[in-house]
Amino acid sequence: MGDLATSGEASSGRASAAIFWLGLLISLVGLANVLPTYGQLPRIGPFAVEWFRPFLFLLAFLVCLVADANKRARRARLGSLHFAGYTLAAVAAVFVSWDHYRIGQLTATSVVFFGPREMGISLLAAGLSIWACWRIWGAPLALIGAGAILYLFTGQFWPAPFTTAPTDVADTISANLWYDSAQGILGSLIGVVLTTVLPFVILGALLESTGAAGSMISISFFLMRRLRGGPAHAAILASALFGTVSGSAVSNVVGTGVVTIPMIRKRGFSSSFAGAVEATASTGGQILPPIMGAAALVMADIVGVSYLTVIVAVLIPAVAYYLSLFLAVHFEAQRLSDSETQHDMDIPAPGPQDWLNLALVFATIAVILSLLVNGFSATGAGTTAILVLLPLSFLNARVRRAPRQLIAGVARGGKVMAELAMAIAIVGVIVSTLSATGVPTSFAVALSDASGSSLFVALFVAAVGCIVLGTGMPTLPAYLTIVSVMGPTLQAFDMDLLAMHLFVFFFGVAAGITPPVALTAFAAASVSGGRPIATALVATRVGAMIFLIPFAWAFDDALLIGIGQSGFLEMIAAFVFLLAALYFSTSALCGYDRGTLGWIERGLRLCLTAALLSPFFVVELAALFVGAVLVVRRRVASSRASAV
Questions:
Q1: pLDDT per residue as tens digits for the range 495-507
Q2: For the CA atoms of the chain, what is the radius of gyration?
Q3: Is 596 helix (H, G, I), strand (E, B) or coil?
């Protein structure tokens, strides 16, 4: 048994080393491709897409392959048959990548006609991508990708309105799946991810290597130690700070939740509520400027606006969402008796290194913002921030003692990119299938007919569709899939293009906490020890404003800075009405505000919420007045009860 254990540890070590070097190679090649010109220094990239994309695809697939083989080996389930299968998969990945490069070279000089051979290779590449996506991200996205391929074959036999015109199957499969540089597995979507998103993923991994995550948690707990919600409020602040850097809700939950969730439970909150707070706060990191998730970077490229335009536009909704989380914790803490919660905690003061690590984070963000304001692209700003952060990291004594941590951070960023690339490869298949078959247009016409001229009905149906399509997917694949299907529908109602994409984006983010498959909530439940579905249900209640806020700006674009013709006073008024709506809706959903709320008052508060978000100013003012009367009445009643 000892020999077997030693052998397993040795295999695991070799696998970890392979992942390290492959991840490092992905990061270095990817950064070399997007490195901007500085002064008189020669520029290395951009590389030719004919070899760059298939080469990065091959490296990404090998990372996923080795990681899965290592996982199986740790469970003592890697037999000779499995080893042979992994070897064949690696050889197949080399073959299909080489053939993509070969065909790309041919198309540069002559016209290429696709036949059964190219169709077979395309299906092999798609099969490898689906397998890797399944092993890394789970079944939902992989199954949708497989269904898209099946639809390419059988679309002409489907009932209306999903019937497609008969086509040359070999040419359609080859062009839409593998060989076209504009669509498919190695199309423009993965191109955007490998250029725009890659620097920010590596930047987040580097910041984590400097100890920024732990410092953010320490400082957040210290600042929030005297609030009634205590560690729950601290979890929101820490997850907001770390989430805007990492851009991944699940990794944020795992990284910060192991510290925050146990402390929330010690304060008297239930395990489901503790997990829900962490899940909702981590989810919000993807919508919080200035460094949002990967989907926001891709959105800017698709919409054709600068990244600065996106982060400015989403500022008010993101702040409003986090304020709603603070309110939810505040009302829940009120519900708990003083004997169950402590109003003070013995939290040690952060050390000088913690504040220095936090300064590194804000210095990096300042570099990015200043470059964006001065006209740099998001890619150039992210890459420059990495070059600035590397020498600044040595202000951390831990980095000075072990500089290899920075290299490990770069390699870890490459591993994250590899996993993301496999998900985006499947999204490329889905999007190209939708484009080739015209399904989004047919769906938009059908939905437009069903909703008539009602924007609210169209938004509601689109929101439900977003949540359903985003079930079980990471945010970026969910956003890209959803916007391909739902985008034309909302554009038919003359909705602003960026506002429409942000609407879809918010609901794609929300899918991470929405049952029945809520990846972020389930990850939080694994840390808190709560039941997954119960945690997801509580997270949906705590983070309910992420479903409400997009409807608010759909009818009042003053909430999106820089969108529409709204003036400063209109933005202030819209924000005040939104804050009041958050207060009444959060207290109604919690059922508590200085005392238990009856069902009638809860219903009245929800009605006030709807009125406060209506497009009619007079109705909003009336709702604000009635709401103020309710709050004063509740406070007077609470004061009298305390006096007795």
A1: 788 888 888 888 8
A2: 26
A3: strand
